[in-house]
Amino acid sequence: MTGAAPPQDGPAIEVRGVVTRFGTTTIHDGLDLTVKRGEIIGVVGGSGTGKTVLLRTIIGLQKPADGEVTLLGETVAWDGSSTEALAGRFGMLFQDGALFSALTVGQNIQVPMRECGGIPPQLMDELSRLKVSLVGLPPDACGKFPSELSGGMKKRAGLARALALDPDVVFLDEPTAGLDPIGASDFDELILDLRRALGLTVVMVTHDLDSLARICDRIAVLVDKKIVVGTMEELTGSQHPWIRSYFHGPRARAAFDRPALAGAQE
Ligand SMILES: Nc1ncnc2c1ncn2[C@@H]1O[C@H](COP(=O)(O)OP(=O)(O)OP(=O)(O)O)[C@@H](O)[C@H]1O
Fold first, then answer.
1. Where is the ABC transporter domain (predicted)?
2. pLDDT tens-place string over residues 132-154
3. In the chain, where are the structural domains located?
4. β-pairing, 40-45 with 201-205?
5. Total-model pTM
6. Ligand 1 pocket member 94 (CB < 6 A)
7. What 3-state class would DSSP assign to 192?
8. Interface ipTM
9. Residue with CA at minimum distance from ligand 1 atom 16
């Protein structure tokens, strides 16, 4: 990490030549990705292609075998100092919400505030109420335990915690998984509202084609241990077999409201 103030322009995230190996298995073999500030980018790929590992790498939790990552102008160091230097500047919503079951929603939201330190308890209470309202939960949700919440409410509570310290970037790992279509589309709207209101940059791993079509500016596809990135239109024109079948399958056509490709195999 550099000690200098991070530049406010330039990309939110730069991934250059990232190689990730577990034992003898290579997951990423030279990933490059640039995420612009204020962009909503979807990350897709087959199961086990390393989408979650990519998020963990960007936020400094997973050290790659090679490559460089810059997050909000800070070079990620993977020795713990990254997370410290970037404290509060990014938030993460883990796949299952990852709320602490023994803590209320309000207390969960206050976890990052306590880690940050120096925030008086009364202000933390006030801030957690604000975050609860920001994500569209009723005020009484603050005093509830995760077990008392629906799946959709848990996701919103997890998002409120990710937003606890007013981050510039949020990472969402399958935020709409397990939600019914209405809950999922409400969540999509919430992400769009938050981007509009807070200027957030959003990196979202998702299998939800409706979310991709509705809210993502660009999509990063993990294939062949690398990333192919483009707009929906650009990727729709790709000849790569996995990308082609992903963006032209019947479910994709329903989500993207497109007729079948002329000559496409069904
Ligand atoms: N800490 C680890 N040690 C060893 N292998 C790991 C570790 N973390 C992830 N892997 C492996 O790396 C691969 C990619 O994992 P990852 O969770 O990123 O996949 P994914 O693309 O998010 O998959 P899914 O869509 O199924 O959630 C998997 O084969 C996984 O088993």
1. 13-248
2. 998 889 999 999 999 999 888 88
3. 13-89+174-256, 104-166
4. parallel
5. 0.88
6. no
7. helix
8. 0.97
9. 50
